[in-house]
Amino acid sequence: MRNQTIRSIAVKALLILLTLHAFPVTSGAKVRFGVTGGFQLTDMTFSHDDLDKNNRMGWFAGPTVKFTLPIVGLGIDVAALYDQRDLKVDDTVFKQKSIVVQGDARFGVGLGELLGIFFKLGPRFSFNVGDDFVHWLTTEAEYKQWSLQETMLSINMGAGITFAKHFEADLRYNVPISKTSDFTWNELGDELWDQTWHHAKSRTNAWSVSVTYFF
Question: Under a CB-based contact definition with an 8 Å cutoff, are residues 213 and 33 in contact?
């Protein structure tokens, strides 16, 4: 089952890359290949206020392609990334592992031969390749369960600088289009059979800082 899931993810990622690749290649764009990596700070919000959560760090890395269109200042970036982040609710921490395919439309302005600024906006497709279901018992014998979405769609927006012809650095904010996960837990009363069940939906926004080197 896990191998079938990974193959399905690979096919989806390839189809997305081909779709994003088709337009600029046929438009006479200049193409540059590179590698990118960075860190992110996630901020979870729940539809239930009683859950204890805090911001957590993560990282990502992978290949990227930049298409410079024959229109001054315009371009398209496409990247395929491995993304890993820590998620925490109450005292429990686990890792979310994803394969990410993202495409950004960009507009840039040169500030000289070696320096420029740019702005980016585009979709991000995330495919879960780690655990999609986590459950545990607390010391009070209360049951908690966390279910992650297998696929997620979100929007990237950000800005950055280019320098020394080969490097880019950017700051982005990622906003999910729909829920990120479901969280279910029970609270025990005076007797074990006296239980109250709760359900909450989670959304995970993230700030990220990345550096890209183009060959």
Answer: no
Structure tokens at 2: 């896990």
Cα–Cα distance for residue pair 123/174, rounded to 1 Å: 9
Rg (CA), the chain: 20
List strand residue ranges (DSSP E) for the chain, in order: 30-46, 56-68, 74-89, 92-110, 115-128, 133-137, 143-148, 151-163, 167-176, 181-188, 195-214
Backbone phi and psi for residue 131, each to the nearest 5 degrees, phi listed first: -65, 130
pLDDT over threshold 60, residue 101: yes
The full length of the chain comes to 215
At 150-168, the pLDDT tens digits run: 888 899 999 999 998 899 9
Tell me if residue 51 falls in helix, strand or coil.
Answer: coil
Whether residue 126 contacts residue 102, with contact meaning beta carbons closer than 8 Å, is answered with no
d(CA 83, CA 54): 19
The pTM assigned to this predicted structure is: 0.79
| Distance from C-alpha of 142 to C-alpha of 26, rounded to nearest angstrom | 58
Q: Are 13 and 80 in contact (CB under 8 A)?
A: yes
